[in-house]
Amino acid sequence: MSLNTIQVSMHGRKFGLSSSGGVLIAPTSSTGVSHLAEISSAGVVNSSISSFNSTITEMEVAKQKNVFETISSSAATLSNYGVSVISSDVINVSVLKVPAPEAGMVKEIWGQSSASTLSFNTTADTILFDTTFGASSSALVWDRAGGVRGGYIKMLGLSATRWAVLYRTPTS
Fold first, then answer.
1. 3-state SS track over the chain
2. CA 155 to chain centre
């Protein structure tokens, strides 16, 4: 029986089955798996809770897919994964913060604001945005005549200190 992974529903719930049919949960306070019961031909074998410290890749993927946040403060810090929508409450020339990426994590930012210029700064000088071939900076400026409403930025975490800007809606 392997407890290295947990099979979760497509909705990313933190309750699932092991590969051999055991009931598992993933507490929010740790990255481990709690094994509730194992089902075998002899019936329920292990009904006590025991923790196993193993990475739950499926749950991290589910977490990434399900994060959707609305940013309504002009000095907010965005999450480093998932989708952030810049609401109409965010004013022109606001400076928003983007934390350090994780390698392979995708970050999407959608605009719903009439602000024509927004800046995204990283939370440390060592975290950089790679915006074009060979160019990098700790700030990313998003300019759009008429406002960022309907605009889109897609980034990919290359490492713990590098964001790759894959797409940014052109200025117009």
1. CCCCCCECCCCCCCEEECCCCCEEECCCCCCCEEEEECEECCEECCCCCEEECCCCHHHHHHHHHHCEEEECCCCCECCCCEEEEECCCCCCCEEEEECCCCCCCEEEEEECCCCCEEEEEECCCCCEEEEECCEEECEEEEECCCCCCCCEEEEEECCCCEEEEEEECCCC
2. 11
CATH numbers and ranges of domains, the chain:
15-59 (no CATH), 67-168 (2.60.120)
Residue with tokens 């440390």: 124
Whole-model pTM?
0.62
Phi, psi (5° rounding) for residue 157?
-75, 115
Q: How far apart are CA 129 and CA 143, in angstroms?
A: 16
Q: In this predicted model, what pLDDT tens digit does every residue of 119-133 receive, in sequence order?
A: 999 999 899 999 777
Mean pLDDT across 90-115: 93
What's the CA gap between 49 and 69, in Å, rounded? 34
